[in-house]
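Checklist before submission:
- one chain only
- standard amino acids only
- sequence pasted in full

Submission:
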Amino acid sequence: MNTLDLVVIGGGPAGMAAAIEGYKKGIKNILVIERDKELGGILQQCIHNGFGLHIFGEELTGPEYADRFAKEVKKLGITFKLETMVLNISEDKVITAINSTDGLINIKAKAIVLAMGCRERTRGALNIPGLRPAGIYTAGAAQRFVNMEGYLPGKEVVILGSGDIGLIMARRMTLEGAKVKMVCELLPYSGGLTRNIVQCLDDYNIPLKLSYTVVDIHGKERLEGITIAQVDENRKPIKDTFQYVKCDTLLLSVGLIPENELSHDLGIEIDKVTSGPIVTESMETSVDGVFACGNVVHVHDLVDYVTAESRLAGRCAARYILDNKKKDMDNAIKTISGTGVRYVVPQYINKELVQDENKLYFRVVDEMKKVSIVVKSGDEVIYSKKKAKVAPGEMESIKLNNKILDKMMDKELIIEVQ
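Returned file contents:
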């Protein structure tokens, strides 16, 4: 059995950033395992710009952003295996994987970083009535067809869900000559970034129908049309609002789910809200020596945030290997989602292990204006910041600076939006 210091599962921007940071902190015996045929992850198909403003100070396309990390991985001589699927991770950190060259392989690791990313929800998760005609895709699948395979999935398009991928694909399909008739969103607000609503819908006169959903699918061999309806405050279709829309393609942008089958099998404690591992300030999971970062922990809206979080995970994994520095959960401070907050990451904080890059990341439950973001330790407010607007589609963050850390007196830290 091969023994390594650090194994990173996932060769996307999260996995590569963690591996590079681990290497720079003194860990040379590293392996990155990627199931695709090249490094880069989902960014390979994200050919639009807007990546890298925080990390590199310039606008890059997805492939350009991924390529910078892939080049550094190769320059540093970090070993990686492509087209390799991890089947299992045991409690003593033995990884079982398979590929066509090596066959079945077992690798013992001193520390592991999970960076598997996330996947899209499909039609099966929505229970939309109707037959199963051709022409129904997730937005990410359509993005791959258009940007990497050179296929146009359809010519008359409706998009269900206003997540960032759906908004970007509304523009992309329009640029390729398709007619995007509308974007329907079940909620009364968009799930994507404001800049994407402006640049991808408003600039191309594509209507965004809030509080609308698809209630029926028509067509046998190929999609012929859909029925949409407005929904009430309980998200139930209003019968008087049923409307038939002729189209040959329906794209689904209805949410992302962290890829955590390996985490479940390993027995890692999972957050019921994020569907990702519960982590400490060091991005360490409930299993000793197993770290997680990026969209496998919680779904981010900017890849720059993924990179920052993954560098932290790689650095802390290196510290774990070199110093054998273990978390002290008995004295850890638990972060609590208070009024108006859906979730907070990390879920636990060891004050003595906090680093300069540590932040509290969280999402709000609803769209709100003129609010105060408040952090409480017990009954005392130790941090407060005013914001003109917050929305569930845009992740918020608070830097864990000394002012906050010095005032932490309780075993719980509560984050609220007032």
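Reviewer check: The chain has three domains: 1-119+256-324, 122-254, 331-418.
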